[in-house]
Design goal:
177 residues; single chain; 7-stranded mixed β-sheet; 4 helices; globular; alpha+beta; 7 strands
């Protein structure tokens, strides 16, 4: 039987998290997706996430299979939404899922749903009922995962991955009880 769970990352996980993100950047590039191709997320972003305790990892039989950041509170990137709106407004209390990536060694095993379910559960345990996420318009795989987990498209936001360069992202929201 496979042991699968989500836990908060620790400093010992950082090298593997950095490897997973680097692999994900290559995977996106190979698909012709212009997401994460300008340096974002940087190693400093990943280190800061870990320092603030918002990095989570999916563990499969003792190995890190995936990583994500679960931001709590206002996310400046979500303050301006175009072609739609957030159900609870821009200044609602919510979590935002960022920098979600699957290890190349676990890709194709349909583990993204387990990762998303874990992040939704953690949001609920932390007292959040509003969960938000975004992805690149060309990232059809991530859009599918997001929609399969009950998120609804709410509009378009713009991310500043590189100073002075804003890129569009489809923005999604999930409200839970």
């Amino acid at each position: 039987m496979t042991t699968t769970y989500l836990r908060q990352a620790n400093n010992n996980d950082l090298p593997e998290i950095k490897k997973i993100i680097a692999d994900a950047k290559g995977f996106l590039k190979d698909q012709g997706i212009d997401q994460w191709q300008d340096g974002y997320p940087t190693e400093e972003d990943l280190e800061k996430d870990l320092k603030f305790g918002i990095t989570y990892v999916l563990i499969i039989d003792g190995k890190i299979a995936a990583t994500a950041a679960l931001h709590q509170g206002l996310d400046i990137n979500y303050l301006n939404i175009h072609d739609g709106d957030w159900v609870n407004g821009v200044e609602a209390r919510y979590t935002a899922i960022h920098r979600i990536a699957m290890s190349s060694g676990f890709r194709g095993q349909h583990l993204s749903e387990k990762m998303m379910t874990g992040l939704i559960t953690i949001s609920s345990v932390l007292g959040y009922k509003d969960i938000r996420i975004d992805t690149h318009p060309d990232n059809l795989g991530m859009q599918k995962v997001i929609k399969q987990n009950g998120f609804e498209k709410r509009g378009v936001i713009y991310m500043e991955e590189k100073p002075g360069k804003q890129t569009p992202r489809f923005a999604y929201q999930l409200l839970i009880d």
